[in-house]
Amino acid sequence: MRLKDILTPEEDSRVQELKMELLEAHNKKEAALIKAEIDEIFKTAKERYYSIMNGKKEQASAVERIKTIPIPGLG
């Protein structure tokens, strides 16, 4: 999976805009600020992805625990 795959449409659009601005940056300081904003968008997307994945693992774990609880009268 690529990082681009986990961006929301808004994040992807903003990254594309920032990449264009990066090409037109007038100096290294301006370029560094643009890169920092892109990195922050990527960081947020990664954190959201890992949070979702952890939630799915926890949910699957809870389902497995529920399956092992004996139900009186069924067995």
Question: Could you explain how this protein is built, in words?
Answer:
This protein is mainly alpha-helical and 75 residues long. The protein has one domain. Helix 1 packs antiparallel against helix 2. The protein is built from two helices and no strands. The protein has helices at residues 9-23, 28-67. The mean pLDDT is 84. The chain is rod-shaped, with a radius of gyration of 21 Å. The protein starts with 8 loop residues before the first helix and ends in an 8-residue tail after the last helix.
Brief synopsis:
This protein is mostly helical and about 80 residues long. It has helices at about 10-25, 30-65. The mean pLDDT is about 85.
Strand content: under 5%
Structural class: mainly alpha
Tell me the distance between the termini.
44 Å
Major β-sheet, in short? none
Oligomerization state: single chain
Number of helices: 2
Low-pLDDT residue spans: none
Number of individual domains: 1
Radius of gyration in whole Å, from Cα? 21 Å
Helicity range: over 70%
Offer a few descriptive terms.
about 80 residues; single chain; mainly alpha
Mind sketching the topology for me?
Blueprint: H1 9-23, H2 28-67
Helix pairs in contact: 1-2
